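pinned: reference chain
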Amino acid sequence: SAVVFDECMYIYGGYDKHGMSCNDLYQYRFETKTWTKIKAKGITPNESYHHIAIIHQGSMYVFGGRDSTHTSAKYYSNNSNVQNSDTNLLKDEEEKKKLEEEKWTQIFEYRFGTTMWSKVVASQPPSRLWAHKSLIFENVLYIFGGKDAVTHSNRLLEFHFNTQEWKIIDGSSRFVIGISPRYFHASALHDDCMYVFGGR
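pinned: its C-alpha cells
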C-alpha cells in the first residue's frame, strides 16, 4: 500500500520477489528523492499484502490483508507430530496462532508525529478481509467488498473514529442491494458518494 503525508510517500507491507509477505515501512521524500526504512516501534500489524492503508488526522491506518502462510487446516496438519509428542507445545502454538488471527480483524494506527504503531481498540470488529477498498468521509472509514476465508463480499463496513465502533451493513441492505459481491475492484469518493467499479 502507498499513502502520501507531509511531502513524503509511505509504503507499507507487500511481498518480496520470493512471494513472502512483510510488514516493513518505507518513507520516500519527494524533495530529496531518498528512501528510508523506518524502524518499527510499538504494536505492529501482521506481515501482509492486499490490505488497505489510509490517512486520517496525522496517522496512517492499516486494516486487513493476507500473508504468505496458508490455511489453518495446513497449520494443524503440519503440527500433528508436535501434538503427538508435546501437547503443551501445541497449545502454546495454537494460542499464538489465535492471537495472530485476531490481529487481522483489528485496525492499526501509525502516528507520523511519534513514529509509533498501536492497535485501535474497537468493539465488534468484522471478519478478516483482503482485496477490499476504503475511503474516509466525515470522520468515518468506509470499507466495501473484499474477500474473506470463504467467499467474496458486498458488505459495506463503517468504522467511526469518534466512537471507535464498527457498523456492518449487510449485502441485503437497501444501501447496497443490487451491488454484486466483489474484490480487487476500484472505488473513489466524489462529493458525498462512493463510486465502485470492476473487480472479480
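why pinned: The mean pLDDT is 86. DSSP finds three helices and 14 strands in the chain.
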